[in-house]
Amino acid sequence: MKVFVNGEEREFEKELSVAELIRRLGLLSIRVAVERNKSIVSRQNWESEIVSEGDRLEIVHFVGGG
């Protein structure tokens, strides 16, 4: 299955949840926001929201600073 993450094509063996995608990318879920096909995915829906062939995801990292 091919999807686009932050504009880069990525390939996965099957459909997966947004939560699983975040884990596979090695990201800390507490510090990111996810947009799927131009719609924000609420954190409470990450386990049930399924990423499918051709989806376009934007993942934004929050960075602390002063």
What would you note in describing this structure?
- The chain has 66 residues and is mainly beta.
- The protein has a single domain (2-61), classed as Beta-grasp domain (Ubiquitin-like (UB roll), Roll).
- It is 11% helix and 39% strand.
- The protein is built from one helix and seven strands, in the order E-E-E-H-E-E-E-E.
- The protein has one helix at residues 18-24, and strands at residues 2-5, 8-11, 16-17, 32-36, 39-41, 50-51, 56-61.
- It has a five-stranded mixed beta sheet with strand order 2-1-7-4-5, with no helix packed on it. A two-stranded antiparallel sheet has the order 3-6.
- The longest helix has 7 residues, at 18-24.
- The chain is globular and about 40 Å long.
- The termini are far apart.
